[in-house]
Amino acid sequence: MKILGAVAALLMLSAGPVVAGPVAPPALDWQDCGDGVYQCSPFQVPLDYRHPGGTRVTLQLRRWPAAKPADRIGTLFIYAGGPGSSGWEWVQGFATSAVQEIRDRFDIVGFDPRGVHRSQPVSCLDQPDYAALWQKPATLANAVRSAQQWNAACLAHSGGLLPFIGTEYQARDLDRLRAAVGDAKLTYFGGSYATYVGTVYASMFPGRTRALVLDSAYDPVKYAQDPYSYDYGQYQATEAALQRFLRWCAATPASCAFAAGGPDLAGRVRAILDSLSGSVNGATVLSELTSRLNSGTRRWTALGTDLHLLENHTGPLMYAISQSDTAFNAVNVAVECADRVFPPGMRQLDSRLSEVAADFPLTAPRMAYGPPAYDQTHAPACLQWPAERLSRYTGSYRAVGSAPILVSGNTGDPDTPYADAVALSRILANGHLLTWQGEGHTARRKSACMEAYMYEYLLRLTVPPAGTVCRDAPIPG
């Protein structure tokens, strides 16, 4: 095991610009997590891969051991998206919902990446100060000032970590984990942002890929190299999903309580958002409303009820910024600002934010001119980002020489546009596109058809026929 780890470390260092001497990954020390079912282990990785023998970051891992060790294929690494989601927590949900053969034949391992939750979390503003930013009027000047305040707090609390949480270093962490479990090649499932991690991994280490499922995939070129265009696509997808929901609501009033209040549903949503102020306001409510679209049509009836309640300023959409939002958005902003370089200049910022606000008037103005939060809201913060981008990946995304890579996309994804999955499948030298004609973010746990293809690929390396489109009804849930 130690010899394999040392060899893997030598190979890893040949895959990119980091040229310091090899340092073998430490052994994993799996112990019962205290529940009698899952196993946990810490794992140390270099803070800075240019100096792999220096300061360490401790990642926290969780494992579902294969139920049939004699039939074990290897380890399936599941990587949570976000950035900012906990892979440690996701293990239980993934393991309990996967088909039995996946549970039998893979150790299922998830972890909190560097900067997330249990693994030296990024910290920026505290919750009261962050919540106060959400109460400011949505203007360019406030967006710029809020980003300055946010960035200063990130630098003060996590300045030593910020240069080293970009996706290249996360991919290197993943490769050390692959070596530590003794797998010659990586088996991986990643959704949303985690598809970018998988793309970077495959591009850096193409010969070490066994099977990668990239669910609700990013267009890596736009994400890293043309961030304004990438953000535009996300704004467009969010607005379009909300409008599709509202059209469905108007057409099926028996299933959507919100339809009873009058025909101009979009106008009524706008009026509700305008009517709110204080800790629960149009921006906080919109953030919760749009996030619920990720669940897809199976939750549309509930969303119609919630909007009906919201019209009377009651119900679960009366949402204030929480500590979990504060923690999640700290990582989300920090990782994406480490990865993405926006063209300099406040004039272009003004122009691009004005464009999305005009083109997507129901959702974009409060998001574009709000505080640093989720994904497409990052431009004011990233434009003024105070940390070096030492862990930013800058190479090709072709992954020439990789195993076949399965790229999936939903045609009605409100978060990661379907066009991104199409683009990634064409960018990768060995990408294979799988499509679900459905609503919601990520296809796993929504489409049984998509899951069947994904699991068959993970188990037997069989990719679906070119042009495969799943059209099944969503999994209830």
TrEMBL record:
Pfam families in the record, alphabetically?
A: Abhydrolase_1 (PF00561), Abhydrolase_4 (PF08386)
**Keywords annotated in UniProt:** Hydrolase, Signal
Q: Which GO terms describe its molecular function?
A: hydrolase activity
Where in the numbering of this chain does the Peptidase S33 tripeptidyl aminopeptidase-like C-terminal domain appear? 378-470
Acetylation is among the record's keywords? no
Question: Taxonomically, which superkingdom?
Answer: Bacteria
The positions making up the signal sequence are 1-20
Q: Which residues form the AB hydrolase-1 domain?
A: 77-276
Query: What InterPro entries does this protein's entry cite?
Result: AB_hydrolase_1 (IPR000073), AB_hydrolase_fold (IPR029058), Pept_S33_TAP-like_C (IPR013595), Serine_prot/Carboxylest_S33 (IPR051601)
- What family is it from? Belongs to the peptidase S33 family.
Q: What is this protein called?
A: Peptidase
Q: What is the lineage of its organism?
A: Bacteria, Bacillati, Actinomycetota, Actinomycetes, Micromonosporales
